[in-house]
Structure formats: structure tokens, C-alpha cells
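Handout, section 4.2: multi-component inputs.
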Amino acid sequence: MAKRILHGEGMLTEAGRAEWESRNTRASALAASPYKKDFPLLSRNPDLAFLDSAATAQRPKAVLEAQKRFYEKMNANALRGLYRLSVDATEAINAARGHVARFIGLDERDDRRDIVFCRNTSEALNLVAHSLAPTVLGPGDEVCITVMEHHSNLIPWQQACRAAGATLVYLYPDGNGVIGEDEMRAKIGPRTKIVSAVHVSNVLGVANDVKLMAHIAHENGAVMVVDAAQSVPHFPVDVSDLGCDFLAFSGHKVFGPMGVGVLWGRHELLDAMPPFLTGGEMIESVTEQDATWAPVPEKFEAGTQDAAGIYALDAALTYVEEVGFDAMQAREQALVAQCMRRLSGLDFVRIIGPDDPAAHHGVVSFNVCGIHPHDVASILDMDNVAIRAGHHCAQPLLAHLGIDSCCRASFAFYNDSGDIDRLIEGLEHVWSMFHG
Amino acid sequence: MASGNVYTAALMEHNAHPDYKYELTDFTHEHEGVNPSCGDELVLRLRLSADSATIEEVAFTGSGCAVSQASADIMAELITGETVDEARRLGDLFIRMIQGDELSPDERDDLDEAYELESISRMPARVKCAELAWRTLAAMI
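Output:
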């Protein structure tokens, strides 16, 4: 079954090809991105084809300026200070908290206390694994994840299971990259205490039905955690619709700064969980031998937060709202469709993942026959094409697919067909260097 | 912004036609090197002289990227016929170069064709590829 995912070429149906062709007629709109001018790094490097946004996105000027504005006009340590600047910094963090809540489908005022700022998705998932798992996991219990997980939603659960004597159980996709209801019901049962799943795979690009997974998890009394690092940058994510209990994402993949991540959790769960990191800002009171905790979210935010980063994340979300997910998705899908069509015209390239470009969420993984992905990426770099190559922090998925590594071109709405031209020319160059 | 070309004609030639990639049967030393993150695998075999002072024959098998394969072939060519002490010195030189140390003109000459891989020292993600054969050698002698 993994084979089909690996060798998508030739599997395209007539309807699929018609859809590609129709998308391609719209491709002229992709000729030159109107958005690159918003991104200083991209406008300064007009010859660069940046096709690695799934690793980290570029940041628009609005985000860089917000970061600078914080340090120039609002810089003080939030929460503690009793003077105006510190109050400004605190208000900036709280406003950002509210904005994040609204961005993921929650109430800006009532639910912002359940937005915990951390460094990134990895830290957010570690927080849940360290603070929640010991309170619900025991010997013989199970944690259920998918084989598509990024290592950041895999190793924390390996460690948690090892500590508790619990078992880590995997959900596997079918040949189209879909984890179906049968597979979920076969693996999620009465022993399952936690289900944690990646929303969008960083290798295959497919979106998992985490809403159904959450439903089945809850039927079995388990907690549902969603790694939304690759979904939040691409389409609207509404936690009340998904019905999950925790959701994590990184600011830097959604055009915000590096170093700020978000964990949302159901209030009663966050409230009952012990702290993760301890120290300043997260306490209520401290004696020589004991301490009590501040309420959520401060309980989980030990030490000085990256307030400027949080303020800049707020600006990033505003930028995304201004561009609009409709426009972003339309561009990304058209770019992916065009990229897949052009790659399928190279007989030495094998696309990995589903046939339907709309199922890729900006990610096109592939291999070049007989040429190691690291060589492909290094040679593409000589032509100023930036892609990722390797195991993509998803070694169990690649083992499941029967490969050691692969190449990945990933798109954001700011890319254009010129970037795809460079990729295709670059791949022809790669091939000719080895077979010229 | 792009890095320099490490895919020189010499490197591509060593990758496409490695003279030292074969199964050496009458070896005295054998060691396996792996880069788990890239899937590069290499088995290096040596035949030392009866007094264990000289490397008489070197060969490798395995699979990996062009950089790891060519680097192995270049290394095998360089150390064939050398004393174990000299091979060790050359290996240290190569690792130093790949880690970013500036080599003296004499040291560059000593590395001969292996010096062509110098620019990999500025490609952190590829350092492990270039080093694989040399680290495997270091673990053997």
C-alpha cells in the first residue's frame, strides 16, 4: 500500500488530469507573485526560489516592523512591572493571546486564558507529554499516534510511554495517505488514554481527519492532542469544530518570528495539570520549602516570555487575515498543481503522496531516480533553489514508505510559477550532471 | 547566496566510476560506517602488510550520496600504499579541513585530490557525507 504513495506517476485518472489542466489555465495568475514585495528577504533575492516554507516561512515586513516597534517603544518586562511600559508590554501579550484564540476559532476574551505561549510546537507538545501524561497514563495503557508524526509529536510520547510502562500504538495510512475510520477504531480503544496526531503531514502534505479521531478518542475516554504546525499556516483551523483537547502550532511557520509557539488546551485540563517548567512568573507564592502555582496560562509560562516575538506573532496573524485564507489556498493549490504537473513531465522524478494536488497543502515530496536527495538539494542550491532533503524529522514515516530520504518542495502563497520554473530547470541540471 | 560547486568533474568521475568500490576478500581489517540520518552505508576493508605497517589494498562497498561515495574513492586512492601512520595523519588532515581548519599549502598538497572537497566545510549538512569514509578509517587504524 505504501507503494502507491511512492509511485504516484501514471496513477492519475482522467478526471484528475482534467482538473490539473483546468488549474493550469489559471496559472497565468501565478506568473509573478504580488506578495513577494511584502517579504524583504524575497524582494532582496529576486533570483531565489524559496521552496522550504514548511520548514520555516519567510516573514512579511509587518512582522519585522512589529518586532522592532516592541523593542523601540514598548520594551519592558511584562507582568511584573508597575510602571506604564511594563503595563504596555503586558497588554501587548494579552492582546496577542486574544488574537490567537480568535484565530483558532475561540472567543477572544473568554478563551484567551487557555492560550499558552511557548517556544514552538515541539515545546508545546513536550509540555502536554510531561504534564498531562503522568496524570493519565499507567502500565498497560496506550498512547495512539500516527506513523506520519514529525519527531516532535513522537519522541515525547515514546518517553512518556516508557516512563509509565504504557504502549505507543500507531495509526497507518492507506495507499492514498488516508487514515480511515476502520484504522482509527482498530487502534483507539478502552486502553487508549491519549491520541495525538499530526493535522497535516510535513512529508505527504495530507490532512488527517483529526475531527473524527477526536470523536473516537472521546468515545473511549481519551484526550485528543493535535499537532497543527503544518495546518495553521494553510487553512482556517477551528478547535471548537475539531473537538480536540489540545492544539499546538509554531509562530515561525505562520509567517511569525522564530521562538514563539502556541499551545491551546481545554481549561479544565490545563487547570488540573502540574506545571512543566518552573521558576519566575509561574508562581502564586513561594516559601522555603513549597510553592503554589499561578493560574493558567501563567502557570505554564515560566521565566520571561519572548514578548516582542509574541507581539510580532499578533502582527503575523493580522497579515494572514489581510491576505485571507481563501486567496492563500487558491494560490497554494494552483502552485502545487502546476508543480506536480511539471514534475510528472520529468521521467526521472517520482512524486510521493496523493495524486490530488488539493490534498497536498503546499507540500510536494519527490525523489530523483538513483540520485541521493542530498545531492539533489545541494545541486539545486547552486541554481538558487532552496528545497529540503532528508528524512524531514519523520523517520518512521519514511521507513513505512520504504525510503531513507526524499526531496521536498513546499509552497506558500508568496511563491509563483517562476519558482517552479527554476525548480524544474534545476532538476534537469541535476539529471544532466549525473547523466549528461 | 548559493554555495560553491563541490560537484566538480573529479568528484562526479569518482562517483560514477569508483576504482576502489569492490568486495575485497583477503582483507585484514573491516569496518562499517553509517550515517543513519542520510541512509549512507559504507563497509571499508583494508589489507595490511605482514608487519602491519603498510596499507597494501583498500576497497569499499555500500551506498550513499555522490559526496560520500566519491570521498570514499578519493580516500582509498590516497592511502593505498601508504604506511598506517601516514594514512592516520592524512585522515586527521582531512577531518580538520572538513571541520573548517585552514590547512598549510604543504598540507593541501598532501591531501592531493581530497583537497577538492574543502568547500564542503561550508556546507554543514554535507560534512557528515564527506567524512563518512574517513571516520570509518579512523575507527580502524
